[in-house]
Write a structure and sequence with these properties.
The complex is a heterotetramer of chains A (403), B (167), C (210) and D (173). Chain A is of the alpha+beta class and 403 residues long. Chain A contains 16 helices and eight strands. In chain A, strands 1-2-3 form a three-stranded antiparallel beta sheet. Chain A has a three-stranded antiparallel beta sheet with strand order 6-7-8. A two-stranded antiparallel sheet of chain A has the order 4-5. Chain A starts with a helix and ends with a helix. Classes of the chains: A alpha+beta (403), B alpha/beta (167), C alpha+beta (210), D alpha/beta (173).
């Protein structure tokens, strides 16, 4: 490593643990002394996925350090949660992780149900898991599409959004809203499944498998794309666990860790599927390509789960989906940390109740926040263009980072 | 390892005065596992305890799930640590309570680097100082924002940088 | 990887991707020509867009305003006097007893969560299919649903005030009569005063014990 | 012929009553027409509504049919769509971006958060209650988030407003 680079990294080191520096082979060792430069990216920048500001310290073209500045979308979720009753918090939960609103709702209602110890009807659980998995696909579609756009491919973006519309149509048929649903309520659902949804779902399964193959042909195995992403932004397994990475970010390092399998909630233990992890077929575990590849595999696994749901779905069950909703939501005094797996990783709710109708404290462990905090570690020593790819591969949602 | 076993282990290593175990009396097993917590009495020993929890081979708490802060409304603040071992798949919750005037706890960033941003957020939102934090700044709000908004008696400013804030 | 094999692989995968794009040429178009054939895409029957209040049915119970997480519904009511007949709600033949003098919904605050729709006892607040209502002025987004104007509202308020004043006078007279009729007896039980302020709940202002 | 049918050619004023200059009025009409047909949008997303804006730009709704092309720089754009919650930290940046745009410039406030703080108006200590406290807004689109069709409708309303500008016609509705 060039001397000056080492010094800079040391002086700018944000994290206490000594940061591993990966220098790709193609960066020539520098012999010429250049001034280091501070470059500001964002908060308005097409590739920051929202309102994120990055303060990048550059040495020529090489990233010496990245200081992310967040909070441009801090919408005070935790303050709102303290001032509203348990059911009223739900619309705000939607707006937190707005790309995967159903998954966020699933996490919140699971947490409150665990606090209250409510048993939900089986049919409700099936619909919830079905919608959570559809939402996972929809969210991954956005992640894949925008990641393609960050690395220079525009067409996958259009194809991904086209497929996402089909999913949104199913949601809209069922609950009336396109994007932010307020569908899963504590103890039940707001509406029963629309009769059209199950046939649409079966249709979608077929089409989505075809699209999966198309995106693979178009993007994943494209040599240019692989060259652009493989070996870029490598994350160590130990660093990932220590730094709080979760979801595809952690699994891409080769860690088989999925809350749906390891700390099962809802009815995920009834389905058979594989936890997707990163491999060294292309690139190495923990790099940008593997993060994308894990998302592609999870898409397929979600389709598998949906297929099993369609087989097992209790069609004859005429249970009212609102039957288990408590008239007055008043949990006993106590606290709980409940976690679920959203498309971005482990979404945890730490709810402290004082026996009132309003929660005393709701603290969210947002996966995107934890994943983004690893960005400086990931991008030191790479080029600026790689920084954009690394940021795209993390798949952040600023609403969830800032809450 | 069972949670009570972990506590026994801690108390045999650090003495009985380390803290008190508060068990949740909920019906569900999940709430008992994730709702019970260990109240650490002396914040000065937290760092030592954290290193022990991480490095002891039988415990191996290698992952900090969440670092949160609670304002109890009676002039005291708590910091809550949710820990998990990805090796043994067991969890434990630690809690430290401090009066608001002395809201200082040692930083655990050197143990789990995940704590870096979480502690900055706790400082930003709740006004808890973390001694020994490498980058002790606000994270979500601007540096000149008045007060720590998640405290229960926070009042939002009328004007901020010339913009009228309340409705 | 060698220089030439790199090129070959790049070209072959690019061609593979291009065939996908070319295959799309023959497919059905998905673009909805929004303003022209408006019925091309029909909104689902459960569509949740602009709120509508059927004031004929509204009984002014304030349940929707309390359910709203955003507090975008403002309702003011005046109690009717016994001589007034407000009619019944069409749906459940429920007798109305409150004049709704103000029913404002600020559509610019609403979060379209439909939490207000569920508790309504007469199903008079509904979410409609209308979504095209952008405005050049923000004030226009506050919808006033109350059917009466300010003068009428004031009239009802006056009526109620008069009625209550009369009732008070009557009650005072009755009490005086009773006092006059039974002067020797033990002091009649005092009218039930408001219950003593209950001891503040331990959690009224405090978090859970740690 | 599809293309010519959809082109909205400027209609020259036919009544020569002597009021107003015929040439200047027609020039105004021409300018307005060209402005409204190529409203280049600043691709600038803030929150949830930005995803709906992306959906509008994608295949199903195809915003480019209206001449709206996303530009990444404020210098090249005519309309800024404030799509999402404007926080106190972001407000100064939004104002700066607006000031960097070249005249004539238009502002569409998309979604309730930028209309008046939306769901966050009550307890949101870090939310600006309405982007109109910082920059002037031409069209308010309600919705949380608005459907893509609602955004297109707001765009068309803005086009109507542009068409009416510089004339005696009062822009109503």
């Amino acid at each position: 490593m060039p001397e000056i680079l080492e010094r800079n990294i040391h002086s700018h080191s944000l994290l206490h643990a000594s940061a591993p520096v990966h220098l790709p082979d193609r960066v020539e060792p520098k012999r010429l002394h250049t001034e280091e430069m501070v470059l500001n990216i964002g908060p308005q920048h097409p590739s920051t996925h929202g309102v994120l500001r990055l303060e990048v310290v550059l040495d020529g073209e090489v990233v010496v350090d990245v200081i992310p500045h967040i909070g441009y979308l801090h919408r005070c979720f935790e303050k709102h949660a303290e001032n509203l009753t348990y059911p009223q918090v739900l619309p705000y939960v939607d707006r937190m992780d707005y790309i995967a609103a159903m998954s966020g709702e699933h996490g919140y209602v699971t947490a409150v149900e665990r606090l209250l110890y409510i048993e939900v009807p089986e049919k409700v659980e099936y619909i919830r898991v079905l919608f959570a998995e559809l939402q996972r696909i929809a969210s991954h579609l956005i992640a894949i599409g925008t990641f393609g756009m960050d690395s220079g491919a525009f067409t996958p973006f259009l194809y991904c959004f086209r497929d996402r519309e089909t999913i949104l149509e199913m949601f809209e048929k069922t609950c009336g809203a396109r994007f932010l649903y307020n569908y899963m309520w504590v103890g039940g659902l707001s509406h029963d499944l629309h009769p059209d949804v199950l046939p649409m779902c079966r249709d979608f399964l077929k089409k989505s498998r075809a699209t999966h193959q198309e995106i693979n042909d178009l993007l994943t195995f494209n040599h240019i794309f692989v060259e652009r992403t493989a070996g870029i932004g490598v994350l160590d397994r130990e660093v990932a666990i220590n730094g709080g990475a979760s979801g595809p970010m952690l699994r891409s390092c080769g860690v088989k860790w999925d809350i749906r399998k390891d700390d099962p909630y809802s009815i995920y233990d009834r389905f058979e599927w594989e936890v997707a992890i990163g491999s060294s077929d292309r690139g190495e575990p923990g790099d940008s390509f593997n993060r994308h590849w894990v998302r592609m595999q999870e898409w397929e696994q979600s389709l598998n789960i949906i297929e099993q749901i369609l087989e097992q779905f209790p069609r004859q069950d005429a249970t009212d989906v609102q039957s288990a909703i408590p008239k007055r939501l008043k949990p006993p005094e106590g606290e709980i940390y409940s976690r679920t797996e959203t498309p971005r990783g482990e979404l945890g709710y730490y709810i402290v109740s004082n026996g009132d109708v309003k929660p005393w404290r709701v603290k969210v462990r947002s996966p995107a926040f934890s994943n983004l905090s690893l960005l400086p570690l990931l991008s030191r020593g790479y080029l600026v263009a790689d920084l954009i790819v690394i940021l795209g591969s993390i798949d952040i949602v600023l609403g969830e980072v800032d809450r | 390892m069972e949670q009570l076993g972990i506590i026994e282990r801690l108390q045999s290593a650090f003495g009985e005065t380390l803290g008190v175990w508060h068990a949740s009396n909920s019906e569900s097993a999940y709430a008992r596992r994730m709702g019970s917590f260990f109240q650490v009495s002396d914040p000065a020993r937290l760092l030592e305890l954290a290193f022990f929890l991480r490095d002891e081979p039988a415990l191996a708490f290698d992952s900090l799930l969440l670092l949160s802060s609670v304002d109890h409304g009676d002039g005291s603040l708590s910091v809550v640590y949710h820990l998990e071992s990805t090796v043994y798949r067991h969890q434990i919750v630690l809690k430290i309570t401090r009066p608001m005037a002395q809201a200082r706890v040692p930083s655990v960033t050197s143990v789990w680097s995940h704590a870096n941003w979480q502690e900055r957020e706790a400082w930003d939102m709740m006004g808890i100082r973390f001694e020994g934090h490498p980058d002790h700044r606000r994270i979500l709000l601007e540096e000149d924002y008045p007060g720590h908004p998640l405290r229960k008696y926070f009042k939002e400013p009328d004007f901020y940088h010339g913009m009228k804030v309340p409705n | 990887m060698g220089y030439f094999s790199d090129i070959t692989r790049g070209l072959s995968t690019a061609v593979k991707g291009l065939t996908v794009v070319i295959r799309h040429l023959g497919r059905r178009k998905v673009t909805r020509q929004y303003p022209e054939p408006k019925n091309e895409y029909i909104l689902p029957e459960r569509a949740r867009n602009r709120l509508y209040v059927n004031m004929d049915d509204c009984i002014g119970c304030d349940k929707c305003a309390r359910a709203c997480p955003v507090d975008c519904i403002e309702i003011e009511t005046v109690k009717s006097i016994p001589e007034e007949d407000l009619g019944v709600t069409t749906r459940f033949a429920k007798k109305k007893s409150l004049w709704v003098t103000k029913f404002d919904i600020d559509m610019a605050k609403c979060c379209y969560c439909s939490l207000c729709v569920w508790p309504c006892p007469t199903e008079c607040i509904v979410m409609t299919e209308v979504f095209e209502f952008s405005e050049p002025k923000r004030e226009n987004l506050i919808y006033h649903y109350a059917t009466m104007d300010a003068a009428e509202a004031e009239l009802h308020r006056q009526n109620r005030a008069n009625y209550e004043a009369q009732a008070n006078v009557q009650r005072a007279k009755q009490a005086a009569d009773r006092a006059a009729n039974a002067p020797a007896g033990p002091p009649s039980s005092t009218p039930p005063s408001s219950p003593p302020p209950s001891a503040a709940s331990p959690w009224a202002n405090k978090g859970p014990k740690h | 012929m599809g293309f010519l049918d959809h082109m909205e050619l400027p209609v020259l004023p036919t009544d020569k009553t002597g009021e107003g200059n015929v040439i200047v009025t027609s020039l105004d009409t021409l300018f307005n027409w060209s402005r409204l047909s190529s409203l280049w949008q600043m691709s600038f997303g803030l929150a949830c509504c930005a995803i709906e804006m992306m959906s509008t730009a994608a295949a199903h709704y195809d915003m480019m049919r209206f001449g709206v092309i996303p530009r990444p720089s404020p210098r090249q754009s005519d309309v800024i769509i404030i799509s999402g919650t404007v926080t106190l930290k972001m407000a100064s940046r939004v104002k700066m971006l607006y000031e960097q745009m070249a005249d004539p410039k238009y502002v569409i406030s998309m979604g309730n958060c930028s209309n008046c703080g939306g769901p966050y108006w009550e307890y949101g200590y870090h939310v600006l209650r309405g982007v109109d406290r910082v920059i002037p807004v031409d069209v308010y689109i309600p919705g949380c988030p608005p459907r893509p069709e609602a955004l297109l409708e707001g765009l068309m309303k803005l086009q109507e407003k542009v068409r009416a500008q510089g004339k005696d016609i009062e822009f109503t509705e």
